[in-house]
Amino acid sequence: MEKNAAPKRSHRLVPKDNRNTVGENQVDNFKMRCEQVSVFYDNGATKAINSVSLDIGDNEVIAMIGPSGCGKSTFIRCLNRMNDTIEGCKVDGRIYLDGKNIYDKDVDVVPLRARVGMVFQKPNPFPKSIFDNVAYAPRIHGLVTNKSETEELVEKSLVRAGLWNEVKDRLNQPGTGLSGGQQQRLCIARTIAVNPEVILADRTPAGVRDPIASGHY
Ligand SMILES: Nc1ncnc2c1ncn2[C@@H]1O[C@H](COP(=O)(O)OP(=O)(O)O)[C@@H](O)[C@H]1O
Ligand SMILES: [Mg+2]
What we know:
Structural class: alpha/beta
CATH class of the largest domain: Alpha Beta
Oligomer: single chain
Bound molecules: adenosine-5'-diphosphate, magnesium ion
Number of domains: 2
CATH topology of the largest domain: Rossmann fold
Distance between the termini: 29 Å
Protein backbone atom coordinates (compact mmCIF):
# COMPACT_ATOMS: atom_id res chain seq x y z
CA MET A 1 0.00 0.00 0.00
CA GLU A 2 1.22 3.49 -0.79
CA LYS A 3 2.55 5.19 2.33
CA ASN A 4 0.00 7.99 2.45
CA ALA A 5 -2.96 6.05 1.14
CA ALA A 6 -6.09 6.10 3.28
CA PRO A 7 -6.25 2.87 5.27
CA LYS A 8 -9.20 0.58 4.70
CA ARG A 9 -11.54 0.57 7.64
CA SER A 10 -12.33 -2.77 9.12
CA HIS A 11 -15.49 -1.97 11.02
CA ARG A 12 -19.14 -1.83 10.02
CA LEU A 13 -20.15 -0.06 6.82
CA VAL A 14 -23.22 2.13 7.23
CA PRO A 15 -25.42 1.95 4.13
CA LYS A 16 -25.62 5.27 2.37
CA ASP A 17 -29.44 5.43 2.57
CA ASN A 18 -29.37 4.81 6.26
CA ARG A 19 -27.13 7.55 7.46
CA ASN A 20 -28.30 9.20 10.61
CA THR A 21 -25.28 10.37 12.49
CA VAL A 22 -22.01 12.06 11.71
CA GLY A 23 -20.18 9.46 13.73
CA GLU A 24 -19.17 6.63 11.43
CA ASN A 25 -20.52 7.16 7.95
CA GLN A 26 -18.65 5.44 5.18
CA VAL A 27 -18.90 4.93 1.48
CA ASP A 28 -16.81 2.71 -0.75
CA ASN A 29 -15.97 5.28 -3.41
CA PHE A 30 -15.06 8.17 -1.16
CA LYS A 31 -13.73 11.39 -2.63
CA MET A 32 -12.84 12.67 0.82
CA ARG A 33 -12.50 10.70 4.03
CA CYS A 34 -12.39 12.32 7.48
CA GLU A 35 -11.10 10.29 10.39
CA GLN A 36 -11.47 11.42 13.98
CA VAL A 37 -11.31 15.08 13.13
CA SER A 38 -11.22 17.35 16.17
CA VAL A 39 -10.73 21.11 16.02
CA PHE A 40 -9.52 23.39 18.79
CA TYR A 41 -9.52 27.17 19.00
CA ASP A 42 -7.58 29.51 21.31
CA ASN A 43 -4.42 27.38 21.11
CA GLY A 44 -6.21 24.30 22.35
CA ALA A 45 -8.28 25.90 25.11
CA THR A 46 -11.62 25.38 23.31
CA LYS A 47 -12.68 22.24 21.48
CA ALA A 48 -15.13 23.08 18.69
CA ILE A 49 -15.43 19.65 17.04
CA ASN A 50 -14.99 16.27 18.66
CA SER A 51 -13.76 13.33 16.62
CA VAL A 52 -15.86 13.49 13.46
CA SER A 53 -15.44 10.61 11.00
CA LEU A 54 -17.27 11.00 7.73
CA ASP A 55 -16.82 10.02 4.11
CA ILE A 56 -17.87 12.16 1.20
CA GLY A 57 -18.56 10.01 -1.82
CA ASP A 58 -17.58 10.81 -5.38
CA ASN A 59 -20.34 12.99 -6.89
CA GLU A 60 -22.18 13.00 -3.59
CA VAL A 61 -24.02 16.06 -2.27
CA ILE A 62 -23.90 16.33 1.50
CA ALA A 63 -25.66 18.97 3.59
CA MET A 64 -24.81 19.51 7.23
CA ILE A 65 -27.56 20.81 9.47
CA GLY A 66 -27.20 21.96 13.06
CA PRO A 67 -27.74 24.85 15.44
CA SER A 68 -25.64 27.97 15.25
CA GLY A 69 -22.25 27.40 16.82
CA CYS A 70 -22.28 23.59 16.55
CA GLY A 71 -19.25 23.60 14.28
CA LYS A 72 -20.53 23.37 10.69
CA SER A 73 -18.29 26.14 9.37
CA THR A 74 -15.36 24.88 11.42
CA PHE A 75 -15.79 21.42 9.92
CA ILE A 76 -16.03 22.45 6.29
CA ARG A 77 -13.03 24.77 6.72
CA CYS A 78 -11.03 21.65 7.63
CA LEU A 79 -11.67 20.20 4.19
CA ASN A 80 -9.52 22.74 2.34
CA ARG A 81 -7.35 23.80 5.27
CA MET A 82 -8.94 27.21 5.63
CA ASN A 83 -8.61 26.79 9.40
CA ASP A 84 -4.85 27.16 8.84
CA THR A 85 -5.53 30.86 8.38
CA ILE A 86 -7.10 31.23 11.85
CA GLU A 87 -4.57 31.95 14.55
CA GLY A 88 -4.67 29.55 17.49
CA CYS A 89 -6.73 26.99 15.58
CA LYS A 90 -5.53 23.39 15.59
CA VAL A 91 -6.93 20.48 13.58
CA ASP A 92 -6.41 16.89 14.74
CA GLY A 93 -7.17 13.72 12.83
CA ARG A 94 -6.79 12.79 9.20
CA ILE A 95 -8.54 14.08 6.09
CA TYR A 96 -7.91 12.37 2.78
CA LEU A 97 -8.61 13.66 -0.71
CA ASP A 98 -8.33 10.84 -3.23
CA GLY A 99 -6.42 8.85 -0.61
CA LYS A 100 -3.85 11.55 0.18
CA ASN A 101 -3.87 13.17 3.62
CA ILE A 102 -4.28 16.89 2.93
CA TYR A 103 -2.57 17.67 6.25
CA ASP A 104 0.66 15.97 5.19
CA LYS A 105 3.67 18.27 5.29
CA ASP A 106 4.25 18.03 1.55
CA VAL A 107 0.77 19.32 0.61
CA ASP A 108 0.71 22.81 -0.92
CA VAL A 109 -2.50 24.56 0.15
CA VAL A 110 -2.75 26.72 -2.98
CA PRO A 111 -3.47 23.88 -5.45
CA LEU A 112 -5.43 22.11 -2.68
CA ARG A 113 -7.81 25.06 -2.42
CA ALA A 114 -8.23 25.07 -6.20
CA ARG A 115 -9.25 21.40 -6.01
CA VAL A 116 -11.46 21.94 -2.95
CA GLY A 117 -13.14 25.28 -3.59
CA MET A 118 -15.15 27.23 -1.06
CA VAL A 119 -18.08 29.62 -1.24
CA PHE A 120 -18.19 31.59 1.98
CA GLN A 121 -21.31 32.34 3.97
CA LYS A 122 -20.84 36.07 3.51
CA PRO A 123 -20.27 37.07 -0.13
CA ASN A 124 -16.78 38.49 -0.39
CA PRO A 125 -16.03 39.66 -3.94
CA PHE A 126 -12.54 40.98 -4.54
CA PRO A 127 -12.37 44.77 -4.98
CA LYS A 128 -12.08 44.21 -8.71
CA SER A 129 -14.36 44.19 -11.72
CA ILE A 130 -16.95 41.45 -12.17
CA PHE A 131 -14.81 40.06 -15.00
CA ASP A 132 -11.60 40.06 -12.96
CA ASN A 133 -13.29 38.44 -9.96
CA VAL A 134 -13.94 35.39 -12.10
CA ALA A 135 -10.73 35.55 -14.16
CA TYR A 136 -8.38 35.97 -11.19
CA ALA A 137 -8.00 32.35 -10.06
CA PRO A 138 -7.88 30.78 -13.55
CA ARG A 139 -5.09 33.24 -14.36
CA ILE A 140 -2.99 32.44 -11.30
CA HIS A 141 -3.49 28.73 -11.76
CA GLY A 142 -2.50 29.00 -15.44
CA LEU A 143 -5.79 27.64 -16.75
CA VAL A 144 -6.07 30.38 -19.36
CA THR A 145 -3.33 31.69 -21.57
CA ASN A 146 -4.94 34.41 -23.64
CA LYS A 147 -7.77 36.93 -23.75
CA SER A 148 -10.29 34.87 -25.70
CA GLU A 149 -9.79 31.80 -23.48
CA THR A 150 -10.26 34.01 -20.43
CA GLU A 151 -13.41 35.61 -21.85
CA GLU A 152 -14.83 32.21 -22.69
CA LEU A 153 -14.17 30.82 -19.22
CA VAL A 154 -15.56 33.92 -17.49
CA GLU A 155 -18.77 33.70 -19.53
CA LYS A 156 -19.13 29.95 -18.97
CA SER A 157 -18.63 30.32 -15.21
CA LEU A 158 -21.12 33.18 -14.94
CA VAL A 159 -23.67 31.20 -16.97
CA ARG A 160 -23.19 28.17 -14.69
CA ALA A 161 -23.67 30.38 -11.64
CA GLY A 162 -26.87 31.84 -13.12
CA LEU A 163 -25.54 35.38 -13.24
CA TRP A 164 -24.49 35.94 -16.85
CA ASN A 165 -27.68 37.59 -18.10
CA GLU A 166 -27.65 40.08 -15.27
CA VAL A 167 -24.03 41.17 -15.69
CA LYS A 168 -23.02 40.58 -19.31
CA ASP A 169 -23.32 44.27 -20.16
CA ARG A 170 -21.36 45.51 -17.17
CA LEU A 171 -18.47 43.12 -16.74
CA ASN A 172 -16.07 45.98 -16.08
CA GLN A 173 -18.00 47.34 -13.13
CA PRO A 174 -16.94 46.46 -9.58
CA GLY A 175 -18.16 43.14 -8.18
CA THR A 176 -18.88 44.86 -4.89
CA GLY A 177 -21.56 46.97 -6.62
CA LEU A 178 -23.83 43.96 -7.16
CA SER A 179 -26.73 43.06 -4.88
CA GLY A 180 -26.09 40.56 -2.07
CA GLY A 181 -27.57 37.63 -3.98
CA GLN A 182 -25.69 38.60 -7.13
CA GLN A 183 -22.44 38.85 -5.15
CA GLN A 184 -23.07 35.35 -3.79
CA ARG A 185 -23.50 34.04 -7.35
CA LEU A 186 -20.38 35.94 -8.43
CA CYS A 187 -18.47 34.14 -5.67
CA ILE A 188 -19.88 30.83 -6.92
CA ALA A 189 -18.76 31.70 -10.46
CA ARG A 190 -15.31 32.56 -9.09
CA THR A 191 -15.14 29.21 -7.29
CA ILE A 192 -16.30 27.03 -10.18
CA ALA A 193 -14.08 28.84 -12.70
CA VAL A 194 -11.13 26.66 -11.68
CA ASN A 195 -13.20 23.46 -11.98
CA PRO A 196 -12.86 22.33 -8.38
CA GLU A 197 -13.31 18.63 -7.67
CA VAL A 198 -15.13 19.44 -4.43
CA ILE A 199 -17.18 22.54 -3.62
CA LEU A 200 -17.72 23.61 -0.02
CA ALA A 201 -20.62 26.01 0.41
CA ASP A 202 -21.21 27.60 3.80
CA ARG A 203 -24.93 28.36 4.04
CA THR A 204 -25.28 29.41 0.44
CA PRO A 205 -28.82 30.73 -0.08
CA ALA A 206 -31.36 28.31 -1.54
CA GLY A 207 -31.89 30.57 -4.55
CA VAL A 208 -28.47 29.66 -5.85
CA ARG A 209 -28.58 25.94 -5.17
CA ASP A 210 -28.55 24.77 -8.78
CA PRO A 211 -24.88 25.25 -9.64
CA ILE A 212 -24.03 23.70 -6.30
CA ALA A 213 -26.27 20.69 -6.89
CA SER A 214 -24.17 19.77 -9.87
CA GLY A 215 -21.04 19.42 -7.78
CA HIS A 216 -20.03 18.42 -4.29
CA TYR A 217 -21.31 20.21 -1.24
N1 LIG B 1 -12.09 32.00 14.86
C1 LIG B 1 -12.60 31.45 15.98
N2 LIG B 1 -11.99 31.60 17.16
C2 LIG B 1 -12.48 31.05 18.31
N3 LIG B 1 -13.60 30.30 18.34
C3 LIG B 1 -14.27 30.12 17.19
C4 LIG B 1 -13.82 30.67 15.95
N4 LIG B 1 -14.68 30.32 14.97
C5 LIG B 1 -15.63 29.58 15.57
N5 LIG B 1 -15.39 29.45 16.89
C6 LIG B 1 -16.21 28.71 17.87
O1 LIG B 1 -16.33 27.37 17.44
C7 LIG B 1 -17.66 26.90 17.62
C8 LIG B 1 -18.24 26.46 16.28
O2 LIG B 1 -18.43 27.60 15.47
P1 LIG B 1 -18.85 27.52 13.93
O3 LIG B 1 -18.02 26.48 13.27
O4 LIG B 1 -18.78 28.89 13.39
O5 LIG B 1 -20.35 27.00 14.05
P2 LIG B 1 -21.55 27.01 12.97
O6 LIG B 1 -20.95 27.27 11.62
O7 LIG B 1 -22.17 25.65 13.10
O8 LIG B 1 -22.49 28.09 13.39
C9 LIG B 1 -18.42 28.03 18.27
O9 LIG B 1 -18.42 27.82 19.66
C10 LIG B 1 -17.62 29.25 17.90
O10 LIG B 1 -17.74 30.26 18.86
MG1 LIG C 1 -21.31 28.76 10.26
